[in-house]
């Protein structure tokens, strides 16, 4: 229950802070801003995949890249976490895996992870951004959102979307989403 309340408060704060993106061919920022947190041990792989992309346009679009943006935490991101994979994952029964342990989540096979670069999203299709990360040091660290670069009708677009992600290492430490993302 505590985690649900934290996410609801964080969603309201992100929405009021204007962290969403402008409406483009990928459609509006689905959650209007939210965050997910997960506890892990040093060296344990975790996954984050709550940013659902939907092509709401009339033309196919080609995704060029996806990346986490707005790092918040101790030191430089490269010193505390390794982004092992940055790709895409199809929705499973209409749902996205917000956060989990990789590749240990039942129903989310490792083979489902797709490269982002060159992926074609047809009109009306949905897919989620998906990141596999390894915590390298103790602490609470995260990103305020996800950036997606894509091409449609010969033009390149970049959208930043406000779904944050926090990793707390070790697993038994408190995982303060608002404080880690510096939203106070």
Quick tags:
12 strands, mainly beta, 184 residues, Immunoglobulin-like, 6-stranded mixed beta sheet
Question: What does this protein look like?
Answer:
With 184 residues, this protein is mainly β. It contains 3 helices and 12 strands, in the order αββββαββββββββα. Strands 1, 4, 8, 10, 11 and 12 form a 6-stranded mixed β-sheet that branches. Strands 2, 3, 5, 6, 7 and 9 form a 6-stranded antiparallel β-sheet that branches. A hairpin with a 2-residue loop joins β10 and β11. The model is unreliable at 1-23 (pLDDT under 50).
> Strand content of the residues, in percent?
35-45%
Spell the H/E element sequence: HEEEEHEEEEEEEEH
Task: List low-confidence stretches.
Answer: 1-23
Task: State the CATH superfamily name.
Answer: Immunoglobulins
CATH architecture: Sandwich
Structural class by SSE content = mainly beta
* CATH class (first level) name: Mainly Beta
Instruction: Give the tally of β-strands.
Output: 12
Distance between the termini: 21 Å
CATH topology: Immunoglobulin-like
The proportion of residues forming helix, as a percent range, comes to 10-25%
Contiguous helical run count: 3
Major sheet description:
6 strands, mixed
Rg, alpha carbons: 16 Å
Can you tell me the number of structural domains? 1
Oligomer: single chain
| Backbone shape | globular
Mean pLDDT: 82
């Amino acid at each position: 229950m505590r985690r649900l309340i934290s996410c609801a408060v964080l969603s309201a704060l992100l929405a009021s802070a204007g962290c969403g993106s402008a409406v483009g061919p990928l459609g509006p920022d689905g959650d209007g801003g939210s965050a997910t947190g997960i506890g892990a041990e040093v060296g344990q792989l975790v996954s984050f995949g709550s940013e659902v992309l939907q092509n709401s346009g009339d033309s196919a679009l080609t995704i060029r890249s996806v990346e986490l943006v707005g790092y918040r935490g101790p030191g430089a991101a490269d010193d505390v976490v390794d982004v092992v994979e940055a790709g895409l994952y199809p929705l499973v029964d209409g749902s996205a895996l917000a956060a989990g342990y990789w590749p240990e989540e039942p129903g989310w096979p490792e083979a489902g992870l797709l490269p982002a670069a060159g992926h074609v999203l047809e009109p009306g299709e949905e897919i989620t951004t998906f990141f596999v990360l390894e915590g390298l040091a103790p602490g609470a660290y995260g990103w305020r959102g996800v950036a997606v670069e894509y091409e449609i009708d010969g033009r390149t677009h970049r959208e930043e979307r406000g779904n944050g992600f926090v990793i707390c290492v070790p697993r038994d430490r408190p995982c303060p989403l608002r404080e880690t993302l510096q939203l106070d």
